[in-house]
Specification:
The complex is a heterodimer of chains A (252) and B (293). Chain A has 252 residues and is an alpha+beta fold. Helices cover 18% and strands 23% of the residues of chain A. In chain A, strands 1, 2, 4, 9, 10 and 11 form a six-stranded mixed β-sheet that branches. A four-stranded antiparallel β-sheet of chain A has the order 6-7-5-8, with helices on one face. The radius of gyration of chain B is 17 Å and the shape is globular. The chains are: A alpha+beta (252), B mainly beta (293).
């Protein structure tokens, strides 16, 4: 593990893991997400990310609406707000409500694992009202095209992409934001990379079938916060940081 | 089916001795294991030397050496009369991908992830560069007459055919969008099989590269091992979907599908008599099984 985490906690970090069947995923900590103490993480993982984006062929990606919410959140709980500053991805049951936006170039349809997905460069109050009234919205989230399926996304190169879901208040679960149309198998990678990646292996399940992951449930992890949020919605202290956990509880 | 256990990590390569009596396997544990298939007993296991894994194995044509390649690019030979390492050479700047002894019994080809193809003489430290490829080698096979080296290039659907005397590239073909991770010639060299990362196997006559290949579809994930029976009537394949398949070459039909491994199959070798196949798995075991008629 490179020593840049959690010390350099003002920056996002990342790590990689392999699933039961040998497929590879990339996890973006978004600062607060837990990162396994062993395996491909930190600066080493950033270097690998650059290498894989450089070397692996480009393919299509599917956006996963369920990976943008916590396990116990209903998709409808995610807010849809007018914005000029951020792009927004909106997951829908039907494209009817956004057809006019797509035809006018105000939105771009992208592939989704379920239903439909559309990216809005900006959202007006009128668009938000229309989308909300349509009842077709399943979920929405900010969208950054440097990752998340855009030109810089590692998912376009066959790697499943998970993002941390809990802002910075706790080391929360990761959600599968992007599914590669053609996943890369770990044995397709050079042996030195393959061997390092296999150091962080989920032996029980596959990324193809798993939307939410909390690494602290599987391995010793490092994180900025003293506690982590399980997939069951319960808070847990990181081993050795129980005192901080109690203090946080008292402050809350 | 015979299960050979002993590796402490994924098996990466398997090879039969020319007489079919011995089977060698190597893995991520960095150990070479040799079994006597008649007695089912382990004959020899190498000492683990540092961190690198064994990526490629072959027997020399005269059965005097086991040839191996490490993930750190080193190439070694084990003298079978003494079971001692005969040599250790720095061969590649990245992992060794394949070791292919020429049927002349003299030359040995090594291919690596560094894009180099080297020619060696048995038990000699000197090497000659046969060629440098535009991309690393994902798969390799030598034609039975030793004249042609088929190489699947990483991150491309290209299979290069290299003249083993001149090193010149000729009659290469783009098989598809997916990279080829396994290659095999029939014993008469009239067919070349290429298994790709989408699970498709393409068959074509390497002398007629403009003819469209014949596709065998069945595997759902990358194909990591291929071998023809000596009569060319059957093709055996295995890969990341954990299955091994026996194909009827004439019809392209799957005759049998086996699930011998608990994890993905990394490698495959066919006995010289074509009666058995050995598959190595990420599950750390080698399975030796009969090829059904």
């Amino acid at each position: 593990m490179a020593p840049d985490f959690p010390a350099a906690h003002s920056m996002d970090s990342c790590w990689f893991a392999v699933d039961r069947d040998g497929f590879v995923a990339y996890f973006s900590t978004g600062e607060a997400g837990a990162m396994p103490e062993s395996g491909y993480g930190g600066e080493e993982a950033s270097g690998l990310e650059d290498l894989l984006i450089r070397d692996l062929p480009v393919g299509d990606v599917l956006h996963d609406p369920n990976g943008h919410r916590l396990p116990d959140q209903h998709v409808g709980q995610l807010g849809l707000h007018p914005t000029d500053d951020w792009q927004t991805i909106v997951f829908l049951n039907s494209l009817a409500a956004v057809q006019s936006d797509i035809e006018a170039g105000r939105a771009t349809a992208v592939r989704a694992t379920e239903g439909y997905a559309v990216i809005f460069p900006r959202l007006t109050a009128e668009q938000v009202r229309r989308l909300t009234d349509s009842g077709a919205v399943r979920a929405s989230d900010f969208y950054f095209d440097s990752g998340e399926g855009g030109a810089g996304s590692i998912a376009r190169h066959g790697i499943y992409e998970y993002s941390h879901l809990c802002e910075n208040w706790i080391a929360g679960p990761y959600g599968r934001s992007l599914v590669p149309a053609r996943p890369v198998h770990v044995d397709q990678l050079p042996p030195n990379i393959r061997r390092n990646l296999m150091g962080t292996r989920f032996t029980g399940w596959t990324f193809a079938e798993t939307v939410h992951i909390q690494p602290a449930e599987h391995w010793p992890c490092q994180a900025w916060d003293a506690s982590w949020l399980g997939l069951d919605g319960k808070r847990h202290p990181f081993p050795g940081r129980e005192d901080e956990f109690v203090e946080q509880d008292e402050e809350d | 089916m015979l299960t050979l256990a002993g590796h402490a990590a994924a098996v990466r390569c398997v090879a039969y001795s020319p007489d079919g009596a011995l089977l060698a396997s190597g893995g991520d544990d960095g150990v070479v294991r040799v079994w006597d298939l008649a007695s089912r007993l382990a004959v020899w296991a190498s000492e683990k030397e540092g961190d690198p894994g064994i990526e490629a194995l072959a027997f020399s044509a005269d059965s005097t050496f086991i040839l191996g390649g490490w993930s750190n690019g080193m190439y070694f030979g084990v003298a079978m009369d003494r079971w001692k390492q005969g040599w250790l050479h720095a061969a590649h700047n990245a992992a060794v991908r394949a070791i292919l002894p020429h049927p002349d019994g003299v030359r040995i080809f090594t291919a690596g992830w560094d894009r180099d193809i080297w020619v060696w003489r048995l038990n000699k430290p000197k090497r000659i560069q046969l060629c440098k490829l535009p991309k690393p080698t994902a798969s390799a096979a030598l034609s039975p007459d030793g004249r042609t080296l088929a190489l699947g290039l990483w991150n491309s659907g290209i299979v290069c055919l290299i003249d083993t005397d001149s090193g010149k590239v000729g009659k290469s073909r783009l098989v598809g969008e997916s990279e080829v991770f396994s290659l095999a010639f029939t014993s008469d060299g009239s067919l070349l099989a290429a298994g790709d990362t989408r699970g498709r196997i393409n068959l074509w006559n390497p002398a007629q590269p403009n003819q469209p290949p014949r596709a065998l579809d069945g595997h759902s994930l990358p194909v990591y091992g291929l071998a023809f029976t000596p009569d060319g009537r059957r093709l055996v394949s295995a890969g990341a979907d954990k299955t091994a398949r026996v194909w009827d070459v004439a019809t392209g039909r799957t005759l049998h599908e086996f699930l011998w491994h608990q994890s993905w199959v990394t490698c495959l070798a066919m006995a010289p008599d074509g009666l058995t196949v050995a598959t190595g798995g990420e599950d750390k075991v080698v399975s030796v099984w009969d090829v059904p008629e």
